[in-house]
């Protein structure tokens, strides 16, 4: 990143656009009409198209815009299991969904709605809430694309856990049914009630504890306690060290590499000054009250950090700021926002800045979002201009430990994710039309359970293709933990 800062990304104004308002009956009729165009049972089908792109080619296409030395880490993380491969294969699935049946019932999509992209975080009122928590690929599109990716992720995870086909079908059907039931409930609610609806973790814990075993309750309590303490102060203790009396981020290459280790000594001062300019640029995208809060913190240090599975290779930075003293840290994450994997198939975003696309999509899908969400555009260390979005690094974040979920717990978690996704879609899509399309039978649920199993087979074939590509030397995988 450099000192040459530009601030772009304002969406094309829609203030003058006339918004149609249909009656409830008209919206119900629209949903039923979609059934005639795209029968619910058609979603059960999955066959790779004769001209389906080579999966490794698609991954390599993504690699062309990423940090070259980090791409092998991405492949290594994807090769841990078919489930981790699925987590990194959102582009492959988007390409596949584009060749399948699609409704005209659109909502703001997560774009990568697998089960590990749901989780716990602290709302601005500091209560723990559960929601979708990854929006790198967000874009408006057919509501069922998100549902298909979510249900398929449970089928893949069920195989990873060794569940038999019958058990996986029960879980997959439960996820889709929860989405359908929740959407029916949202379709009867007032607009403001939909907007305010959120899933409080405390309420979910009470329900879970009533039917959980002692071991399950203990594990849940431990995970929630860990999440609640995962904040900027915890990040400060884990990620920094004192150098000459000043806190600095610790390097742990290649996963964490500080600015001072990335650039020659003679360029460090200029880069740090440039980062301070970027913070001012980002600050302008915050509401006025948040700007005042951010102004109370001063820049201290920054580092490049490898994050996630599918995101590995995109440029992600962590930025340390301090407030009143050394015990008042704020850790921000500035993450590169590239083109959504959905854009080649659903059209370009309305926003001129991909960082703004992520932020606006997150605000639309979440009832409570990170108070520090913002964006900027800047040339990188290589001089190439890129978009970024900014959020707090840790804010009581936590997610399910998939590797320990038993069938009953995975089914319960699936219902929670299905309900959560429906709530997110109801904020931007037509809940009445979507609910009318889904209906009261299990036709859609059963179709998606069949699709999920078929797509899990495809995921395993694609996983094997990447294994072959690494074994042959076509691509390189490096385990960096």
Topology diagram in text:
Elements: H1 24-37, H2 55-63, H3 71-78, H4 82-87, H5 90-98, E1 106-109, E2 118-122, E3 128-132, E4 139-142, H6 143-160, H7 165-187, H8 191-196, E5 199-200, H9 201-209, H10 214-228, H11 232-239, E6 240-243, E7 246-249, E8 256-258, H12 259-262, H13 265-283, H14 288-294, E9 298-305, E10 316-322, E11 329-336, H15 343-346, H16 354-365, E12 374-379, E13 385-392, H17 407-428, H18 431-438, H19 443-471
Antiparallel strand pairs: 1-4, 2-3, 3-5, 6-7, 8-9, 9-10, 10-11, 11-13, 12-13
Helix pairs in contact: 1-18, 6-7, 6-17, 6-19, 7-17, 7-18, 7-19
Walk me through this protein's architecture.
The protein is of the alpha+beta class. The chain folds into two domains: 24-227 and 403-471, no CATH class; 232-392, no CATH class. The chain contains 19 helices and 13 strands. It has helices spanning 24-37, 55-63, 71-78, 82-87, 90-98, 143-160, 165-187, 191-196, 201-209, 214-228, 232-239, 259-262, 265-283, 288-294, 343-346, 354-365, 407-428, 431-438, 443-471, and strands at 106-109, 118-122, 128-132, 139-142, 199-200, 240-243, 246-249, 256-258, 298-305, 316-322, 329-336, 374-379, 385-392. The strands form four sheets. A six-stranded antiparallel β-sheet has the order 8-9-10-11-13-12, with helices on both faces. The protein has a three-stranded antiparallel β-sheet with strand order 2-3-5. A hairpin with a 5-residue loop joins strand 12 (374-379) and strand 13 (385-392). Helix 7 (165-187) packs across helix 18 (431-438). The longest helix has 29 residues, at 443-471. It is globular, with a radius of gyration of 22 Å. The two termini are 26 Å apart. Mean pLDDT is 92; it is low at 2-11.
